[in-house]
Write a structure and sequence with these properties.
Layout (H helix, E strand, L loop, with lengths): L2 H20 L1 H12 L13 H7 L7 H19 L6 H19 L26 H15 L6 H38 L6 E6 L6 E7 L3 E8 L9 E5 L13 H8 L4 E6 L2 E11 L9 E9 L5 E5 L7 H12 L5
Helix pairs in contact: 1-2, 1-5, 1-6, 1-7, 2-5, 4-5, 6-7
Length: 337
């Protein structure tokens, strides 16, 4: 999830764990703990894009990291406060729960989280977008209200817990919505007599009303959209040929299997002029409908001066964000019959 959501979650979990003993200090250290796993993004300063993306949500998002790091951070915090209100065990418990809930939340998103690192398996449930105001804002409001009560006041815990309950309930609701949307995609594929191998369903940015599906066929991928506000029940799928043959001799390079693994097999190859691009389909296109041809995650493949195959992320034009959001909002409101 986004940084704000992880900070709020960490603060709320910290309060639930140790708020009665240490007050707002629990929120503070919980919020700090909520940001620690995402420090793996700093790897982009030292390694190439592909390696950085491979490392993201790896070790720092694992159960093992939470177990190993919690007592170290707990000991350091206990030294800062000289065991005035809480001891090393208390702070270690807070740090573990705040470090651990971060990757648990991330596991519900699209990227995937290596909870069981060093094993390669990634947990990616795909039922919530990395930024979802309906999840974060109620959470944040109740946390702020709780801050204004003394640590021993019963309403402090009540409001904090209420935020945790509401956010957890919303998460469960998105799981139900995901299955409902997937059923609509299944029905449309069957009605349109489309043979497919696999389907992946996820919400679109900032909401849980509009859903999109990647559908794999033998030679291409189909992308469709379904809103719970749609009046027209027919889903139009846009086809993107796999074009894996365009890799040519590149497929023999060690970089290609890494990109295929990173994309979990959801990729197309695109040739524009003399350039070859590797498109990761898991995060969709920059836009909606048959006019959207550019993918959110796309790598330009090229050989450097030493003859080594490299991959460079294609830059995204942030100036397109506003019109894209308008199109997204319009599509959320549904297709009209």
């Amino acid at each position: 999830m986004d940084s704000l959501t992880q900070i709020v979650l960490g603060a709320a979990v910290g309060e639930a764990t140790l708020g009665k003993k240490v007050g707002n200090k629990a929120m503070l250290w919980g919020a700090i703990a909520g940001t620690i796993p995402d420090l793996d993004v700093l790897s982009k300063l030292f390694v190439d894009n592909v390696t950085a993306n491979e490392l993201h949500r790896g070790f720092s998002h694992s159960i093992l990291f939470s177990i190993l790091a919690a007592p170290i951070f707990g000991w350091l915090i206990s030294k800062i406060y000289k065991n005035q209100e809480a001891d090393w065990k208390d702070w270690s418990r807070l740090m573990f729960l705040c470090l651990f809930t971060h990757p648990i939340l991330d596991a519900f998103t699209t990227w995937g989280t290596q909870l069981f690192w060093p094993f390669d398996y990634k947990v990616a449930i795909n039922n919530i977008f990395v930024v979802d105001p309906l999840y974060t804002i109620p959470f944040l409001i109740f946390l702020i209200i709780a801050m204004f009560y003394k640590r021993t006041h019963p309403k402090r815990r009540t409001y904090n817990n209420l935020g945790l309950y509401i956010s957890s309930l919303y998460m469960l609701v998105t799981l139900v919505l995901q299955q409902s949307a997937k059923f609509s995609f299944w029905t449309n594929l069957e009605n349109q007599h489309i043979q497919y191998n696999e389907i992946q369903t996820r919400p679109t940015p900032l909401n849980s009303i509009l859903w999109t599906a990647n559908v794999e066929t033998n030679d291409s991928f189909l992308i469709g959209y379904y809103s719970f506000l749609d009046e027209d029940e027919v889903i139009d799928f846009v086809e993107f040929p796999k074009n894996h043959h365009l890799l040519g001799k590149m497929k023999e390079e060690p970089l290609i299997p890494r990109l295929v693994k990173l994309s979990e097999g959801w990729y197309t190859i695109e040739k524009i002029d003399d350039s070859i691009y590797f498109n990761d389909l898991r995060f969709g296109t920059l836009g909606i409908g048959d006019q959207a041809k550019r993918f959110v995650f796309s790598y330009e493949l090229y050989y450097d001066d030493n003859g080594e195959l490299k991959a460079k992320e294609r830059e995204r034009d942030m100036g397109e964000a506003s019109p894209l959001l308008k199109k997204l909002f319009t599509r959320v409101l549904g297709n009209k019959s």
